[in-house]
Amino acid sequence: MGFTIGGSRSTKEFRSGTRRRGRTSECTAVAEYTGLWGWDVVPGARAAGPLRDCSCGRADCPAPGAHPLPLAPTVAAGATLDEVTGTWGEYPGAAVLLPAGRAFDVIEVSQEAGRRALVRLERMGLPLGPVTATPDGRAQFFVAPGAADGLPQLLYRMGWDDADLDLRALGHGAYVTAPPSDHAGLGPVGWLRPPALACAGSPPQARLLLGTLAYICHRLRR
Asked: What span, in angstroms and rounded, lies between the C-alpha atoms of 104 and 44?
């Protein structure tokens, strides 16, 4: 089994080294997410080693390095750097996870489709929120909450309900790995479009982006 977040000697060494770096990396990022963008953050498990062992300690973990740590508290929107450091000190090395369904939902497509869509949407002058790029080749568009519940109806109205699209929505109960954290032991998550004051607190309605995203997903399937 790989590293665990617990009380072994090797883990304590890992914790102390991570704590020294945490204030300038994960803690700073979390404080930005909570204090500047108004997002909740949850400490998440990480995966390591050739077998991508999960730090939660479960040998049969169904989502190694891609889920909240058991019993970890939510760092609420508005938390300061000192408050974040106090919480993250209890979970050093944790991944930075953003819960969907609160301040935003996510529409996820392939990274190729996401990059093409971004170019087209920007040319059209449509409002855009943050967009992440994951190490497993996905692009995640932050949109207004409710998109996940409303996606089937939106696709139906736009005539895409019976199309084979590589597109899904993430809402309440789902978590997004945020930069600079590693996702599932595959590598770090990055920004295709970083958050900005004009959009982070009020991401666009999914209907404004969905037509373009669905069209490009469809073209790439052909």
From this structure: 19
